[in-house]
Design brief:
- GO terms for molecular function: acyltransferase activity, transferring groups other than amino-acyl groups.
- Pfam families: Acetyltransf_1 (PF00583).
- By secondary structure, the chain is of the alpha+beta class.
- The chain has 8 helices and 10 strands.
Amino acid sequence: MASASRLLPPAPPPATPLHRPRTRSHLAVPRLRCRAASSAATSSGAALLERGGSAAEVALREFVTLDELRAAVRLRVRTFCEYAIDSVGAEDHRKALADREFEALQDRISGKMINFQRVSCINGTVPLSPSLMTADELCSMCKFVEDGEERVVVGSLDLNQCLWLPDELTGKRPGVNEDSQTRAYLSNVCVAKELQKKGLGYALVDKSKKLAREWGITDLYVHVAINNIAGQKLYKKSGFVYEGEEPAWKARFLGRPRRLLLWFDMNKEPL
């Protein structure tokens, strides 16, 4: 699942893109299921990806190093940009997108971007294991090294404390006469294709809500494409409700599916 609200800058496609999903038959990936358990691992910011009778811990946290941040950006490009393996210029195009988004994300996090009061990148990472080694593209693009251990970013999102996101619908809460600085948006929500529909997206959103509460956020928003049914189900499960939708003319002008704007009331229930 990938959220419709993403900040990756648009760019022209490579010379011969093929508009069909990449085949994954050559990838041997673990059959994992993510569960949220009332365990020490979960309370410390982790989720469990289960495989058969065993479980692998997914660390859920704000990014720590720039290498991790770059790996998260590569996962986003891999998720949001589809190419056939033999597309001419695909690798160069993805690298250029990743470099540009890496710089832009650093600017947002460091406070250089107007309107963004505070931004954090939240990632789900796992140790690089034999079960992931055969997913060559995922591991080569999205891995980083921390304390001598190779890890892979398998899920990511941004939490943005701001009044609005560029080219997106603006949330209505809190109103203009209230402290609108307590509004925040989720963006760039993505999970590695091989690990989707296993609960990791829900765990990432849940982690973002906890951080938003620490920031004093009262109203949390996310945008999702009207044809992204999986994303809508995820956000509904996470407690988001419909607030509005993008007009058709704007979506046509921007060359994309229409967006829905969903809202979560941070005061509604304790996390």
